[in-house]
């Protein structure tokens, strides 16, 4: 391996980047986020883009040989985007000498299989720990200081209070982004960047090194105090309660402004992590301004407080702190493996924080999550973790074993992605128009009422006609109002009825129902459904008493499938 280093140039394996060698930007704008209607969408090749994604295991992308059979498998799973790590250690094994052979190989593999990429920058932190930094950083503790905890011990976590830590990470990241501009600004394979991974301190609620203690005893930065005052009426309720308990002061030390306790420690660390990541992100965007997101290790049921989960990461409590401290970061995204998926996406999706789910489940629950996030929260996309191991598409535990390659196409997530891919142009149009919704049902939440268009959709878990007490464990759907009395719906293990909620006749009937699919964006009707296909309740008197026709849409367990319905009203 040869390295070159000339004054004023970046040292890269096998070549020297000169300014004149950098190609002109593509005539097409680079991937970016754009507000369209009521939704913020990812724009790729000049058009809204729905990321049907998956993330490989942490070190999968460290080996091009390992990735070689993975790429075509991802295509078979109906992905259009893959999240892969690039570690600081992998590109700068020797200080000041950059080797992008691995990056270029990953881009080549993605392009060969017509996939887009989101690179995950594993720089100073991965899951809060500094395990992907180069060996020369690990060994240089005097130069690159670690976090200290209450015991006085140092832990393997680089401190946010070190200029040397920040400068070294920033130099490596900007070299990486400069290289992406060099090799990908024309092809635009890379559509977003994840900045670090699940940052925050484990083992204590805040850094207690000398520099950190001095900062904690000092005043809350005026920039943060002004921001909180400016958006006080829009602050996260939990943050407002914490701040309010100390009197909503506009100045003072961290303890004076936010009160004593671990919540204040978390707020303090959030500000310092945000400032650190903002500096790196801004420098990278000066080289190549792709959209950037963070990801969050969310609080688990067994956690008693910050430090049990990474303290300072962009949890809901401190997203507003991150917005103040890291305006260059476009999205603070959640990693959600907990069963209450709907609750967590609701806490992260905000007016100033579009939704993207970079890590979650890949089994049947993951298929349901994808439909719900995209339909109900206009998510930019969805990404289960460990997508290189198909066993994760069956169950959460990869040791259960991967299915045979012939079975991959028929697993729940690939089936769901196939339908979402068909619907993508329609989904993106209706996300912008605000005429889309999603449902996620289980035993605790077996029904949901959704106002959409001129009707309220009542979505229930699919019931067995002979024994209505028999219902599936999970159901999901996505719904779009495409006309005054017309809807496209896609779902699995649900049934849907309609109730008018505008003036006029009180009962909705099904004028026409078609099952079908989209081919190249064009609707191709299949079966015309009627009779037993749509009868949910044969007790018509009972149905009429609650202004129902007895008919509705049924989506079976072998989906998701797509239906188009035209309604009429009668009295």
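^ structure tokens above, recovered residues below v
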């Amino acid at each position: 391996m040869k390295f070159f280093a000339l004054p004023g140039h970046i040292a890269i394996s096998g070549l020297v980047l000169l300014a004149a060698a950098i190609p002109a930007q593509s005539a097409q704008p680079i991937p970016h986020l754009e507000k369209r209607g009521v939704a913020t969408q990812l724009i790729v090749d000049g058009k809204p883009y729905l990321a049907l994604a998956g993330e490989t295991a942490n070190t999968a992308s460290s080996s091009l040989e390992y990735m070689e059979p993975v790429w075509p498998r991802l295509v078979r799973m109906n992905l259009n985007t893959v999240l892969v790590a690039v570690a600081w250690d992998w590109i700068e094994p020797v200080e000041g000498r950059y080797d992008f052979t691995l990056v270029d190989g990953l881009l080549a593999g993605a392009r060969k299989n017509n996939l887009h990429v989101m690179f995950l920058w594993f720089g100073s932190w991965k899951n809060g720990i500094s395990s992907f930094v180069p060996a020369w950083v690990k060994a240089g503790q005097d130069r690159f200081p670690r976090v200290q905890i209450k015991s006085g011990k140092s832990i393997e976590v680089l401190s946010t209070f070190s200029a040397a830590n920040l400068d070294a990470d920033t130099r490596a990241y900007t070299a990486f982004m400069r290289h992406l501009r060099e090799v990908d600004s024309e092809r635009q394979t890379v559509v977003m960047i994840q900045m670090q991974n699940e940052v925050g301190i484990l083992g204590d609620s805040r850094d207690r090194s000398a520099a950190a203690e001095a900062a904690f005893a000092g005043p809350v930065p005026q920039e943060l105090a002004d921001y909180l005052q400016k958006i006080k009426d829009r602050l996260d309720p939990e943050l407002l309660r914490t701040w309010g308990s100390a009197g909503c002061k506009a100045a003072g030390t961290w303890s004076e402004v936010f009160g004593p306790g671990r919540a204040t420690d978390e707020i303090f660390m959030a500000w310092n992590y945000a400032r650190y990541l903002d500096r790196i992100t801004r420098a990278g965007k000066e080289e190549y301004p792709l959209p950037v997101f963070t990801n969050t290790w969310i609080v688990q049921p067994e956690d008693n407080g910050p430090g049990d989960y990474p303290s300072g990461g962009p949890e809901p409590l401190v997203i507003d702190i991150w917005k103040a401290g890291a305006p260059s970061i476009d999205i603070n995204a959640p990693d959600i493996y907990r069963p209450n998926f709907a609750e967590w996406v609701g806490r992260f999706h905000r007016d100033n924080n579009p939704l993207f789910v970079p890590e979650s489940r890949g089994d049947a629950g993951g298929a349901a999550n994808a439909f719900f996030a995209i339909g109900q929260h206009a998510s930019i996309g969805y990404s289960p973790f460990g997508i290189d191991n198909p066993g994760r598409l069956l169950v959460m535990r990869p040791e259960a074993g991967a299915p045979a390659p012939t079975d991959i196409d028929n697993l729940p997530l690939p089936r769901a992605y196939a339908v979402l891919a068909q619907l993508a142009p329609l989904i993106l149009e209706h996300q912008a128009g605000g005429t889309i919704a999603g449902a996620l049902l289980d035993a605790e939440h077996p029904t949901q009422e959704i106002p959409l268009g001129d009707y309220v959709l009542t979505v229930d878990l699919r019931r067995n006609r002979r024994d209505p007490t028999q219902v599936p464990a999970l159901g999901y759907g996505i719904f779009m109002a495409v006309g005054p009395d017309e809807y496209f719906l896609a779902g699995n293990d649900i049934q849907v009825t309609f109730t008018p909620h505008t003036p006029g006749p009180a009962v909705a009937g099904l004028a026409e129902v078609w099952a079908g699919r989209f081919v190249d964006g064009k609707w191709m009707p299949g079966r015309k459904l009627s009779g037993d296909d749509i009868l949910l309740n044969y007790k018509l008197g009972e149905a009429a008493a609650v202004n129902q026709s007895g008919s509705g849409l049924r989506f079976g367990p072998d989906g998701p499938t797509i239906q188009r319905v035209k309604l009429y009203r009668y009295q």
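Residues 1-25, 396-400 have pLDDT under 50 and may be disordered.
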